[in-house]
Each structure stands twice: as C-alpha cells, then as structure tokens.
Amino acid sequence: MRGRVVLLALGALIVCARPAEVQEDPNASARRAMVDLIASAGVRDSATLAAMRVVPRHEFVPADVRNLAYGDHPLPIGYEQTISQPYVVAFMTEQLRARPGMKVLEIGTGSGYQAAVLAVIGCDVYTIEIVEPLATAAGALLARLGYTRVHARAGDGYQGWPEAAPFDAVIVTAAAPEIPPVLLEELKPGGRLVMPVGPQDGMQYLVLVEKGAAGKTTRRTLLPVRFVPLVGGKR
Ligand SMILES: C[S@@+](CC[C@H](N)C(=O)[O-])C[C@H]1O[C@@H](n2cnc3c(N)ncnc32)[C@H](O)[C@@H]1O
C-alpha cells in the first residue's frame, strides 16, 4: 500500500514537472527555418546543419537587432564589425570538413558565433580577435553558454597561435589581399584553410587551401563574398 502511494506521488511529480521540461526554446522554430533555408541553398554537411540548429544565434547579436537574429544576413555587432551571414558560416564550416576532435584555428572571433558552431560539432577551437572589447565580450559569452571547447584570446591573427599549432583546419572570417603565410605554416598536412581573399573595396572570393600529406598546398576559388577587412599584420 505504502509503495503504491509513493508510486502515485512520484507519478504526480513527473506529470507536474513535465511541462517545464519539454518547454521549447521560443527561437527554435526560427532557427529551424534558417537552417532549412541554408540546406535548400545547397549546404549538405549534416554536422554543420545540426550544429546550427542548436546554437542560439540570438545570444550572439546585440539586443537592438535580436529580432533579426535568424534572418539570413550579417548583422552589426559594434566596432564596425559584423556577425557573418548564416549561409556563409555554414558554407565555410562545410568546406573545413569540421569533425569531432579536430583542432581549429579561427581568425576573427567577432561575436563568437562561428566558434560556437565549431565547438558544437566537437572541434577544439582556438579563436583570435583583434578588437579587444569584442574579444572580451565573446570570451565571456562563450563561457556563460558553456562552450568549454573554445579558447578565445585578444590578438592579431597575422601572428597565428604558435603555442597551439599545428591545426587540422584554419578559418579566417575577415578578408585580406593575401593569405597570411603563418596561417599556412600552422596548418597540418592534410588540413584545410578557408578564407575570403581580395581587396577591401573590390571583389573578394572565398578561397579553400588544401595541404597535402607532403606539405604541398593547392588552392581553389569557391564563392564571391563581402567581408570586413583583416587588419593588423604590422610588426
Ligand atoms: C566578419 S567578423 C567575424 C564574424 C565572427 N566569426 C562571428 O562569428 O561573429 C570579422 C572579425 O575579424 C576581426 N579581425 C580583423 N582583423 C583581425 C586580425 N588581424 N586578427 C584577429 N581578428 C581580426 C574583426 O575585428 C571582426 O570582429
């Protein structure tokens, strides 16, 4: 009898607890629609799409544009910088062939969103941001949201991250006329680098560099894009 009462009480508890547990994130359907759009535009990599289905992009944008967080466009994040267009984030992540356990260097932390997507895939992410307040804010946000695989620091990506090199993949989210040589040096044989290349005010293209087992690099032009400039590089 006593056992039945306990069981009944337990049942009531579970029933009472259920609504709170299953409450859906109010942004989930907007996020799903965003990812469906990206998939229909040609991104096929299931790891990338699954990660973007869960990373809360609205947390990575300023409050005054939060209602636009799940549109497929870049948004301002302050300091004349942007969080990249979701399609471009997905396309670049797919090109990296990001997989669990990979060590990835990102130049241009910005909001921290791209780093979070890579972390959800299971990559260990080393991300560098040259605008100090952005680096500090992104580092704090990533820590608050529990992305412990991301190591964020303020600095100039032109210097690479020698203490953590070499990397399985490198992603640069700001454009320069040439790929900084140190980033190619810090790429492992068999690794992939994706970066927008071109002048600040002219045509830029996403470029994919693959480093062969013997260290020889091959380069492919993928897509016309428009990115903020990669600054720094002077020493
Ligand atoms: C398009 S935004 C990056 C978007 C970012 N990946 C995100 O998910 O929000 C480009 C960023 O690169 C940063 N940046 C520009 N030059 C840099 C450099 N030399 N080293 C590190 N970061 C740099 C900019 O300050 C800016 O925040």
List the helices and strands and how they pair.
Layout: H1 2-22, H2 28-40, H3 46-54, E1 75-78, E2 81-83, H4 86-96, E3 103-107, H5 113-121, E4 124-129, H6 132-144, E5 150-154, E6 167-172, H7 181-185, E7 187-197, E8 204-211, E9 217-225
Parallel strand pairs: 3-4, 3-6, 4-5, 6-7
Antiparallel strand pairs: 1-2, 7-8, 8-9
Helix pairs in contact: 2-3, 3-5
This protein binds S-adenosylmethionine.
Summarize this entry quickly.
The chain is α/β, with parallel strands linked by helices and 235 residues long. The protein has helices spanning 2-22, 28-40, 46-54, 86-96, 113-121, 132-144, 181-185; strands at 75-78, 81-83, 103-107, 124-129, 150-154, 167-172, 187-197, 204-211, 217-225.
Oligomer: single chain
Derived structural class: alpha/beta
The helix tally amounts to 7
Please give the largest β-sheet: 7 strands, mixed
Order of strands, main sheet, comes to 5-4-3-6-7-8-9
What is the H/E string? HHHEEHEHEHEEHEEE
Overall geometric form: globular
Q: Which hetero ligands occur in this complex?
A: S-adenosylmethionine
Distance between the termini: 80 Å
**Helical content (DSSP H or I, runs of 4+):** 25-40%
Average predicted local confidence, pLDDT:
92
How many DSSP E strands? 9
Strand content: 15-25%
Radius of gyration: 20 Å
Unreliable spans are: 6-20
Structural commentary:
This protein is an alpha/beta fold and 235 residues long. It is 34% helix and 24% strand. The protein is built from seven helices and nine strands. The protein has helices at residues 2-22, 28-40, 46-54, 86-96, 113-121, 132-144, 181-185; strands at residues 75-78, 81-83, 103-107, 124-129, 150-154, 167-172, 187-197, 204-211, 217-225. The strands form two sheets. It has a seven-stranded mixed β-sheet with strand order 5-4-3-6-7-8-9. A two-stranded antiparallel ribbon has the order 1-2. Strand 3 (103-107), helix 5 and strand 4 form a beta-alpha-beta unit. Helix 2 (28-40) runs antiparallel to helix 3. Mean pLDDT is 92; it is low at 6-20. Bound molecules: S-adenosylmethionine.
